[in-house]
Amino acid sequence: MPMNIYTDGFFSIDPTHGFLPIQEPLLHLPERYQPLQDLIDEMPIQKADGQAGLLACENHFEEAARKLPNYKDQIEKEKDPFVWAALFRTYSFISSAYTLAPAHHRYLRTGKYGTANGVLPKNIAQPFVKIAEKLDVFPWLDYHYAYSLGNYSKRDKQAGLEWTNLAMAAKFSGMDDERGFIMLHVDINQYSPDLVKAVFAIAQAETPPTELTDALSLMRDSLHKMNGRRKLMWEASRWKHYNDFRVFIMGIKGNTDIFPDGLRYEGVWDEPKAYRGQTGAQDNIIPTADIASGVIHYYPNNQLTQYLMDLRQYRPKCVQAFFNELAEKMQKNPLVQQLEKSENYKGMQALMRVYEEIYRFRNGHWQFVQKYIMQNTVYPKATGGTPITSWIPNQIKAVLKAMKVLSLALEKDPQWDSVNWQETYERKVSLLNKQLALVAVEAFDPQAVFELNKIHGEQDF
Ligand code: HEM
After folding, report:
1. How far apart are the CA of 230 and the centre of ligand 1, in A?
2. I need a labelling partner for 389 at 20 to 30 A (CA). Which of 158, 288, 340, 445 fits?
3. Domain region containing 244
4. CATH of the domain at 121
5. What number of CA atoms fall less than 13 Å from residue 447's CA on the CB side?
6. Whose C-alpha lies nearest to ligand 1, atom 18?
7. Which residue's CA is the closest to the ligand 1 atom numbered 24?
């Protein structure tokens, strides 16, 4: 049975669109929301015209936001998913800016995040919750509709999705490092249609061996291209400038120093709520690759894996449905078993190359975490609320385990160079173990992790 295509009118998870919206998101809200559009345009620390915006001065943004009309009833009437997404994006940005502006200003003064505003005023909370209900998501800044995939605008409409050609519709800092950081996520996703095409073919039960091998090669090629783009992070967004905008993407859940009592949505609920923050961990590329390739079966059984599963709920419903069906199909017909049954060694080698790309992604990504976060801050929680030092290596281990199991099946392949493979595998294991030893020390030096990757030839740039 082929995979179903899931869509909400904004995203459609299929081989044409991959994980990107079916067309470019709206850059501006419809005119009936002009005061809202004006507020979001005036908001960034640095506005489009280079002048200081409302977030540049303490309290200025909060004062302006409290004066907004309440658009709850107008939003009730909206029918277009693209307008819904643009409204959700606007209210997400406004709500994060409103609550987190005090933490930002305290950080500038003292180098430590202060506490956030714990009450979202009614004129923001009510329309925000209304639009979140329409999209069936939590009322907090997310990765799909708000911060990343639903937030790009091509500068030259005829050119491609390279980050250099992408502007952000809504922004916090308004500076180029923020744009490069999040627009590179969109750029990487330009290759997601091929990834989806490949997993659609892999998930079809009884795909003939040659087609399965071709699908795995396509999966590897798309991941390889994504890795090539991912590495551009180092130039798209300078690591020393990550803190200029990071505080605004913090979540409520897990970040109790910033939100000690959760967040109260005035005029909506009496009790406070706590939602997770926007994070690249809400992106779909790696989870899709993990589910289809079987890496997911090697995830450790711990709190951090639970967090990844919890994040499934922070995705559009159509993405959740896609993951569920993919997982179900792969469960019924596990990939390695399929390959073994048909003695498809070419397919196994192609799968090993897929694992290699997932490993590269995670090991390079681990270096991002060291530089952009650990080197910049003493605050040990990520925007999604995870204890970051111990996070990513767990998932690197899962890839290494999957590789090991597959290598045993490949032993029967006369073409397989097991000596050479074992050597590079041992290097990866040793690199990981040394990194884990380094970060186990309370006051570790992130630069040392970086140097280690350099020595092992795995430096990300
Ligand atoms: C400077 C760049 C980046 C930094 C500093 C960063 C930081 C982090 C952190 C701290 C986590 C831990 C979870 C949490 O948020 O609480 C995480 C997880 C994750 N991030 Fe990123 N990230 C970056 C770029 C990216 C990109 C470009 C992607 C993909 C498009 C991505 C995809 C993921 C995924 C899939 C996870 C879940 C962990 C895993 O499955 O291995 N990240 N990231």
Report:
1. 11
2. 288
3. 6-455
4. 1.20.58.480
5. 1
6. 281
7. 280
Structure tokens at 110: 């003292």
Q: Is residue 225 helix, strand or coil?
A: helix
Cβ contacts of residue 185 below 8 Å, gap of 6+? Answer: 143, 148, 149, 280, 283
pLDDT at 22 over 70: yes
How far apart are the CA of 280 and the centre of ligand 1, in A? 4
State whether the beta carbon of 234 lies less than 6 angstroms from ligand 1.
no
Phi, psi of 412 (to 5 degrees): -80, -10
Distance 382 CA to ligand 1 centre (A): 9
| Cβ 362 under 6 angstroms from ligand 1 | yes
Distance, CA of 168 to CA of 176 (rounded, Å)? 10
The packing angle between helices 34-42 and 81-110, to 10°, is 30
- Read off the pLDDT of residues 286-313 as tens digits, 9 standing for 90 and up: 999 999 999 999 998 887 788 899 999 9
108-122, 167-181, 427-441: range with lowest mean pLDDT? 427-441
Q: Is 32 helix (H, G, I), strand (E, B) or coil?
A: helix
Q: Taking the mean position of all CA atoms in its chain, how far away is CA 31?
A: 31
CB atoms within 10 A of CB 349: 20
Cα separation, 401 vs 407, whole angstroms:
10
129 part of a folded domain: yes
The residue whose C-alpha atom lies closest to atom 38 belonging to ligand 1 is 281
> Taking 90 as the threshold, does the pLDDT of residue 251 lie above it?
yes
- Is position 461 within any domain? no
Read off φ and ψ for residue 120, nearest 5 degrees: -95, 120
| 3-state secondary structure labels for all residues of 261-318 | CCEEECCCCCCCECCCCCCHHHCCHHHHHHHHHCHHHHCCCCHHHHHHHHHHHHCCHH
The first and second tokens of residue 311, run together, are: 């994040």
Residue 266 lies in a domain: yes
Q: Residue 275 contacts by C-beta under 8 Å, 6 or more apart in sequence? A: 138, 139, 140, 251, 252, 253, 263, 314
Tell whether ligand 1 has an atom less than 6 A from the beta carbon of residue 307.
no
- Of the residues 182, 365, 368, 432, which should be mutated to test ligand 1's pocket, given the most ligand atoms within 8 Å of the CB? 365
Is residue 1 assigned to a domain? no
**Total tally of structural domains belonging to the chain:** 1
